[in-house]
Design brief:
The chain has twelve helices and 16 strands. Strand 9, helix 7 and strand 10 form a beta-alpha-beta unit.
């Protein structure tokens, strides 16, 4: 940040008022476009933070800083994550459930104290399972909530404890936020309408400044690649493995999965490659004809998404298979995008179409100029920052 802006932020006049039991910071209008932002994550799995979610957060906060804002990331995490220079609060998750929650609560309390000391103008909170005393975060500054899934369905898939813990505590978060930003229109319906909170849909994007169009693969038989995470059955990895069984002439790469993560026979043409960093994944896409997005979103009662793995594949120019309504791309007509229904039998019923598409895409790449404008993260983050400013303006007026 420019030194003059830092000086202005540190020396600005601040008045405090009480409204609904929460302190509110009133700043001079001349400084209203410069914000001190706390980006907060609550127990996002380290392997998730090492992948597309972590890249998204780094890209987002980097763009905010480019626009002159001061940003600090605060992460409550069960293990160290690759965010050098940011603030991590690590709790012990290798114990029984009760001790784990006690550890989590203790570290969360320390994190909230650090956030309060940071004195943010606004807090951007990525939704996570409530732990005591998370509700204290709303006393620090206005909170904008990012919701990335239907939390009721997601936590139900993790077992009764997590389902009921989330069901009984979710309103502590939803009732207290100043606004929320879902990545899809469908998720607005998952937010309790009774609170009537300001909201804006901002789908996932990528930083086009680092995008790279890869040359077409030179395979003798088609290669399909899916990037997925173990334990998330809505990715539909099982469907793609069965597809590999029925189409032995097509190679299927499964990034993120190892044999220990799959409880079914693995055909010889299906390769479970485990976790890969950015450079390793790029090398796989160099030899990939088609990338496959989520195939079973219906398993979490959803039909709309804007998945990062599809956007990353498209940023490399790799043709894609999409089995849901994409927030940005559903109206884009490209022969390098294959759409199939969002149903349990979609891969079985359309396996011949998928196989034919894979062969047709050999030696081809996407016309990226026709898709890049739809997921330009620079534009998306400008919209997010404008929403932050609106929340702050509304907070001052209230």
């Amino acid at each position: 940040m420019l030194p003059c802006l830092i000086s202005l932020h540190q020396n600005k006049k601040i008045a405090y008022t009480k409204s609904n039991g929460r302190e509110k910071i009133l700043t001079n209008s001349i400084l209203s476009q410069m914000m001190r932002i706390a980006y907060v994550t609550i127990h996002v799995a380290p392997e998730i933070m090492q992948g597309g979610v972590g890249k998204k957060i780094k890209s987002q906060t980097g763009i905010w800083r480019e626009h002159g804002h001061e940003v600090s990331i605060f992460s409550l995490t069960p293990a160290e994550i690759p965010f050098p220079g940011e603030r991590q609060f690590i709790f012990d998750a290798r114990v029984n459930l009760l001790k784990r929650e006690i550890n989590r609560s203790s570290m969360l309390n320390q994190m909230l104290a650090a956030i309060a000391q940071y004195k943010p103008d606004i807090i951007y909170l990525r939704y996570g399972l409530y732990s005591f005393p998370l509700h204290h975060i709303f006393r620090i500054a206005p909170v904008v909530l990012e919701t990335n899934s239907n939390d009721k369905v997601e936590y139900a898939s993790r077992g009764k404890f997590f389902y009921w813990m989330n069901r009984l505590t979710r309103n502590l978060t939803f009732a207290s936020v100043s606004g929320f930003i879902p990545p899809t229109r469908e998720l607005i319906r998952a937010f309790p309408a009774k609170y009537n909170k300001p909201n804006v849909v901002i789908s996932n994007g990528i930083d086009l400044s680092s995008a790279e169009l890869l040359p077409p693969a030179k395979n003798t038989n088609p290669v399909i690649t899916m990037v997925a995470s173990p334990g998330m059955d809505w990715h539909g990895v099982d469907k793609l493995i069965r597809f590999a069984e029925t189409c032995p002439d097509v190679t299927v790469n499964l990034v993120g999965y190892s044999t220990a993560d799959v409880n079914m026979p693995i055909p010889a043409n299906a390769h479970l490659l485990g976790f890969m960093d950015r450079a390793q994944l790029r090398a796989i896409y160099l030899t990939t004809d088609v990338a496959c997005g989520t195939l079973a979103l219906h398993r979490k009662n959803m039909d709309e998404a804007c998945t990062l793995k599809v956007r990353e594949a498209l940023s490399y120019g790799v043709p894609v298979i999409i089995a849901y309504h994409d927030t940005d791309l559903s109206e884009v007509a490209q022969d390098t995008i294959l759409r199939i229904p969002n149903s349990e039998n979609n891969v079985t019923e359309f396996h011949e179409k998928i196989r034919a598409f894979a062969y047709a895409m050999m030696g081809k790449r996407v016309d990226v100029e026709k898709v890049y404008p739809y997921f330009d993260q620079q534009k998306k983050e400008q919209s997010r920052l404008a929403f932050f400013q609106k929340i702050l303006d509304d907070s001052i007026k209230a």
